[in-house]
Amino acid sequence: MISRLRLVSGFILFIFVLGHFSNHALGLVSLELMNDTLAYTVEPWRTLPGTILIVASLTVHAGLAVWALYSRRSLRMKSWELFQLISGFAIPLLLAAHVLSTRGGYEAFGLNEGYKFQLYAQWIETPYRAVMVFAALLLVWIHSCIGWHYWLRYKRWYNQALPVISGLSILIPTLAVAGIISAGFKVTRLAEDEAWVTRLVRKVNKQGDAYVDFILENEAIIISSIIAIILSVLAIHFGRWVWKQKTSVMKLRYSALELDKPIELKVPRGHTVLEHLRENRISHASVCGGRGRCSTCRIHVEGDPGNLPPLSLEEKNILQRINADPNVRLACQLKVDKDLVVSALLRPNIGSKEALNQSRHKPGEEQEVAILFADIRAFTKMSESQLPYDTAFLLNRYFAAMGKAIEEAGGHLDKFIGDGVMAIFGIDKPLKTGAQEAIMAAKRMSERLEQLNAALLHDIKEPLKIGIGIHSGKAIVGNMGYNKAISLTAIGDVVNTASRLESLNKDLKTQMIVSSKTVQISELDFSGYTPKKVSIRGRADELDVYAMEDASKLELELKTELVV
Q1: What mean pLDDT, rounded, does the chain reach?
Q2: With helix as H, strand as E and coil as C, how does 367-405 read?
Q3: How confident is the model over 89-132, as pLDDT tens digits?
Q4: How far apart are CA 490 and CA 206, in angstroms?
Q5: Please, what are the domains in the chain?
């Protein structure tokens, strides 16, 4: 609920800010247009529904900021979190006078003088106020953009749209600042005419010192209140620090691939694992900043999961989304109330894009999958007669065609090995589905190869030929590797067998060899093909397989519907 309230209130405030920025940008055209547009960007917020909406959003968003500071068990945080916290409290300090002079003047004194008076007051009468407003404009926009970025960056569509969004995030404030500067210079020129100034301030002067006193007195109240709230919360944090020195101490044993040996910490009861790690300056993954919005801080906890604190609703939803087992918890949500032994599941400096591609919660778990290997025939000999850049160009075209065929069929593109490809099918799916997808992928790869050869007709002496091997069985599937080289892969006998089936195409003069086991599991109709027995290096028994000269010619029908 707190996350939703923060999101909804932030969205309403962002719409309010976006309207103001659009209005400011019109200063590049004329002052009159800026004032005329206020009827659409400001006046709706002055109606009763608009007032209720904006005041409620301001109150909720500010209240949640105070609550976030209060509820933290440690003041150690990432730089972007620290900026959000500081800017969130700095914005009302910088804008207090501006809000009081505009909305306060409208409500208390009936003043609605528009941009000309505000710019005159800021640029000529009190220039330091103009500097404060400019600083507030930039802080408001940066604060908003950071908030949206760290909320959306774990969504796949956002990373695709990021170039456009980044451009808009720079263009909008640039136009707004340019519009204000242009309008400010126009007002400065108009202010050289004393008669113009007299007409401009006539209505304000009627209010006398009451208007100025109203702004200054209430500004002082707002600023002192905000500072008092901040100091009070910091005092509470200091009190907690003193108290926790006297509380019962728990043992937290933490291990990670990046560490030479596990770290043992003595920590007070009641804080989350992530808070303890931050407080002890131990790096740990947390894309969303520890707000329970992603799963990158996930850890594996040893022992009986029934003895752990119950899952919060947020944590439960996240862990269900990644199909985590009971011993996997979020470090930002799990509070230490007894001795714990935990291990990190992702490297500490993982980014949002990598996190999206590492959705599995274990370093490795046994699962039945279908494995596909493909390799270009006689590629070494072919590359000897080509320039390195030509070889790289050819390989990239080939990898793009094969990778697309694999992904379209529903497979996971594991890796490219030289001129070879490895793909996994059936991850977190029934093995029947994985077997069907692997065979369908082989057919598509053969079709794509024909298209690629036609496109490269004048670039290569001979058409490319490939060999494909497919086998199904148990494998260890998970995120494996080190540092940035960690990726989702599979290991086991099924992988070795699929690789050797692919190599066997050279001897049989075929394009694809698929094990009979995979065909049986897939329930695809192979009645038009005859199985044969082959010897596989490293295996004592012969293996029944189906061998095809051209996988693109496969005319397969499902005996049953595709399992999803």
Answers
A1: 84
A2: EEEEEEEEEECCHHHHHHCCCHHHHHHHHHHHHHHHHHH
A3: 999 999 888 888 888 888 887 777 788 888 888 888 888 888 88
A4: 80
A5: 2-242 (no CATH), 249-354 (3.10.20.30), 363-553 (3.30.70.1230)
